[in-house]
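#struct-help
A.M.: can someone run this one for me? Single chain, 65 residues.
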Amino acid sequence: MGVILYIMLSHRMPFLSNDNDTLTKYNILNKEINLNQRSWDGISQEAKDLVGLMLNRDKRQRITM
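D.P.: on it. Structure tokens below:
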């Protein structure tokens, strides 16, 4: 759900690498989500907070539906 919400709000894929699939997999496991990029201008702080909580790597802290 977090990835879908990320895409709906920013119109971008959160972990995609144009280089190769191995780098995309690495990004999924290691990349910090940056919600301060230009694609997030105009998105409320509450929505950014929700996406951040939904994409938290620690499943004990990750918000679920």
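A.M.: thanks! The radius of gyration is 12 Å.
D.P.: also worth noting: The chain has a mean pLDDT of 89.
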